[in-house]
Amino acid sequence: MKKRPLLASLGAVAVIAAIALGSILLGVRPQLGLDLRGGISAVYSVQLPQDELRPENFDEILDETIEIIRARVDSLGVAEPEISRQGDDILVQLPGVGEPDRLRELIGTTARLTFRPVLAAISPDQPEYDDTPACDLPFDQRAQLADGDVGVLCEAANALTSSGAVLKYVVGPVAVTGVRITDAYVQIGGGIQAFQVGLDFDSEGANQFAQVTSELACARDAGQAGLLAIVLDGEVAQASVMAPEVGCGAGIGGGRASITTGSGLDRAGQELEATDLALLLRAGSLPLTLEASTFQTVSPTLGAEALRAGLLAGLIGLALVAVWLIAFYGVVGLITMLSVGLFALIAFAIVSALGALGFALTLAGVAGLIVSLGITADSGIIFAERIRDELRMGKTVRTGVVYAFRSAWKTNLTGNTVTLVAAAILYWLAVGPVRGFALMLGIANIIDLAIMYLFARPAVFLLAQRGAITRRGVRASATTAGAQR
């Protein structure tokens, strides 16, 4: 073998190692997953209305729902969220976040906004109040009011009357839907100085809104209620009266409206509620009703302790392996341990770089890397054993290492290819942390092949040419009397 290509190969490896080490020294670190960093883990199940069959395009609707949830989470600035499909359910894992109650509401709230004219208001002291649908039932157990129907809706639970019961409204068909909203933002109301959610409509929505407010202004002038119900997820979030400046036949133009939020809350609570509502309306309403079948806050304590224990055990194991390899194979054993060190350095740098692309390292991924450390050590052992076999057959050291590498490379390439195929299949079929294990295992196998060919091969060849590798060093006794170094 010519020295120049061997030295060039080692030089390329040295440059890669220097880049990896530099990134680590600059503070680049992997993004940690839920089990290592803590956070929120939830599974949301789809709740179809009673007696409603599963739609034919259910898969497409579920994928759309996932994208809307992802848009909501991204608006909160959560780093490295994992939102994926798990059968007919949706798995949501958000590492490193707090406020679980707020996130639970933001993720699962349908956020379907409509505007309906109010035909009549029913207070708890009126006789017909008890004859209308109860407001204390869970939302999914209430009768759903279609867009074109007239019916009774309850006021939102945060707007209680003095008797502790919410108002009810008889509302007409939907005049404007939330689909017509192009933007939603937080603003401060005029005279009341309360937080509001400002809404901008598209051209069709602006015309629809002007039409319904014009009709309600005419109803107000005729002595009727003239209220506009802003309905969010089947409840009346606000019933607004037409102001005196809203003229009959003119309505509210400009394609803008506002919702006052935070009734009964302090200023901070008002702002938070307005912010969340604006976020929901910007991201869009969910096409399916979701219910959290599991929702839990995950502590990072157990994962961190397991990681520390695993790393400690791995370091002790590597130290023992290093002693054995160097004692048993000499210089070749030392090269094997340097290969393991290079593997750890490059793998750490790659995982850190993947963090910028959205990959979060979990305990399963750490397990994949630890398994792959053993694979790299095995590759060196296979090479060393092939060298011993070739020397026992009577070849010189210089010739023996060449033939040994050819045999060891074929064996290692075959084994790594099988593992790569298995990792690819596992990554394709699995979900959650198992995919992280498969990804790390696949990447590690590629690194192992590269290190064996670009580092271990030229290093052993050059040392053999310089006489640094001897028969005694690898404990190989020749079977041919005329065998030489």
Main traits of this protein?
disordered C terminus, 485 residues, Alpha-Beta Plaits, Gyrase A, domain 2, 51% helix, alpha+beta
CATH architecture call of the largest domain: Up-down Bundle
Poorly predicted runs: 477-485
Number of domains: 3
The level 1 CATH classification of the largest domain is Mainly Alpha
Share of helix, binned: 40-55%
Shape type: elongated
Question: Mean pLDDT, nearest integer?
Answer: 81
- How many strands appear in the DSSP assignment? 13
Q: Beta fraction of the residues?
A: 15-25%
Report on the architecture of this protein.
The protein has helices spanning 3-25, 34-37, 58-75, 100-108, 203-221, 267-283, 300-329, 331-355, 363-392, 397-429, 433-465, 471-474; strands spanning 39-46, 82-86, 89-95, 113-122, 151-154, 168-171, 176-177, 181-188, 195-201, 227-232, 235-241, 256-260, 290-298. It is α+β, with helices and mostly antiparallel strands and 485 residues long. It folds into three domains: 3-34 and 299-474, Up-down Bundle (Multidrug efflux transporter AcrB transmembrane fold), CATH 1.20.1640; 39-106, Alpha-Beta Plaits (2-Layer Sandwich), CATH 3.30.70; 110-284, Gyrase A, domain 2 (2-Layer Sandwich), CATH 3.30.1360. α1 packs across α8 (331-355), α3 (58-75) runs antiparallel to α6 and α8 (331-355) runs antiparallel to α9. The longest helix has 33 residues, at 397-429. The radius of gyration is 34 Å and the shape is elongated. The chain starts with a helix and ends in an 11-residue tail after the last helix.
